């Protein structure tokens, strides 16, 4: 039995009962070191933990599949939602490649994703259509990423940016913000959230022309507003309707 | 004190401890009737419940703000994530319009959104960049929705579709799928999930040219794959990399 377990942002208050139960029942807990650290220690007691800094994620996923194949209840943990830019897909790919899709029962437990968490801390930026784009070009050509940024900006999506900046790719965020700026005002609100619901949490509301790129790392999520997004006090607010098609006095539909 | 509380898809196993605690502490629980029904009954005992089928959502939000202003601990509940197409924004708008942003402490508790839930039941469709689009034209002109669909398809986003079809708007989903089909193959996998993690849950994997539009209602979420999405057994799988830039044997980055 193999379960992809979403840990949520990291605070226990956002760990779902379903995720907790899956961890309680597991014989083996697998995951990237940084994610294992987010698991409440009591839930790891007496369990085999598969996690080394040396192993790549494909190798770790293979190990997890192998444990599950041998009959162990195996939980692969991910921060945020295991179904968003995370391990659920890789586990399925490996199960498929090894002909184990029918032999190994696979379950996915959804969770509070990183951009849900970031949005909650910022206010209400995701009240309207949005796109989520990762700036990591490890597995995706930069031209594809840039095209998506450009079209998402033209479509007036609120844009959540994952993996904004690493040491190797220090200029990606600058480039991405410039592409978005081709079709969005410099005054567009941008929320910058580091380590949401973890120690060192950092929540900032700024504008497209003033993002402190140096202060951003891989654990940061950015949310760029659409053309109607504004600041409401210290909060980031995307109105539900498009360009104030409704008035606050109106009775909206359900 | 005003709290926007995300209930998640509806099953208690996906209600976060933070949401439960906020409900336990509340004096008043406000929300659309259908959402109040998702709150575990024990958490409503002894509380004022603000919910009538007659009231529009703006009016209900005003009532909640009024209760909070008068000193009551008020929880506004939403299914899924209260920060995604939901009430968090409307509460902020009303607080702002009434000059209460500083006077009434406002907190938002993130949750498992409808498309996170749908994705988990389908397999792993959201492993790569995606867009979320609501087909409701109550507050957004249809031309804007159609433009977003077209650009999202061109950008090769996985596309989550909210509010796909109501009695009044029975042709929206047909139109939307046709627009997406302008730049995506008829064989593109589409996941159709009704009532995720609730009674009557219905999970189907089909293709862009074969979606059973008649079987879709407002409680359904659709996830349309990108150009690399495929079926893995009965599951929907979007590979992490773009067009197999990587091999399963590779060591991926973290």
TrEMBL record, chains A, B:
CDD domains: Precorrin_3B_C17_MT. Keywords: Cobalamin biosynthesis, Methyltransferase, S-adenosyl-L-methionine, Transferase. Gene3D superfamilies: Cobalt-precorrin-4 Transmethylase, Domain 1, Methyltransferase, Cobalt-precorrin-4 Transmethylase, Domain 2. GO terms for biological process: cobalamin biosynthetic process; methylation. InterPro entries: 4pyrrol_Mease (IPR000878), 4pyrrol_Methylase_sf (IPR035996), 4pyrrole_Mease_sub1 (IPR014777), 4pyrrole_Mease_sub2 (IPR014776), Cbl_synth_CobJ/CibH_dom (IPR006363), Precorrin_MeTrfase (IPR051810). Its EC number is 2.1.1.131. Residues 1-211 form the Tetrapyrrole methylase domain. It comes from the Bacteria. GO terms for molecular function: precorrin-3B C17-methyltransferase activity. Pathway: Cofactor biosynthesis; adenosylcobalamin biosynthesis. Pfam families: TP_methylase. PANTHER family: COBALT-FACTOR III C(17)-METHYLTRANSFERASE-RELATED. NCBIfam families: cobJ_cbiH. This is Precorrin-3B C(17)-methyltransferase. The lineage of its organism: Bacteria, Pseudomonadati, Thermodesulfobacteriota, Desulfovibrionia, Desulfovibrionales. The gene is cobJ.
């Amino acid at each position: 039995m193999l379960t992809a377990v979403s840990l949520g942002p990291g605070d226990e208050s956002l760990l779902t009962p379903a995720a907790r139960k899956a961890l309680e029942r597991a014989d083996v807990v697998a995951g990237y070191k940084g994610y294992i650290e987010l698991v409440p220690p009591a839930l790891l007691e007496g369990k085999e933990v598969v996690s080394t800094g040396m192993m790549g994620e494909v190798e770790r996923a293979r190990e997890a599949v192998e444990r599950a194949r041998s009959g162990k209840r195996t939980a692969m943990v991910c921060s945020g939602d295991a179904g968003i830019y995370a391990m659920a897909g890789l586990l399925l790919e490996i199960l498929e490649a090894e002909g184990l899709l029918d032999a190994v029962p696979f379950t996915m437990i959804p969770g509070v994703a990183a951009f849900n968490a970031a949005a909650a801390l910022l206010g209400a930026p995701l009240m309207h259509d949005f796109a989520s784009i990762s700036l990591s070009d490890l597995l995706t050509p930069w031209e594809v990423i840039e095209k998506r940024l450009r079209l998402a900006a033209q479509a007036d999506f609120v844009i959540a940016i994952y993996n904004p900046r690493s040491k190797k790719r220090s200029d990606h965020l600058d480039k991405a913000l410039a592409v978005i700026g081709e079709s969005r005002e410099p005054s567009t609100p941008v929320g910058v959230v580091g380590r949401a619901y973890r120690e060192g949490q950092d929540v900032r509301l700024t504008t497209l022309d003033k993002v402190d790129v140096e202060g951003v790392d891989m654990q940061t999520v950015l949310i760029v507003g659409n053309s109607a997004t504004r600041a409401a006090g210290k909060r980031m607010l995307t109105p539900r309707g498009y360009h104030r098609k409704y008035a606050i006095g109106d009775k909206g539909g359900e």
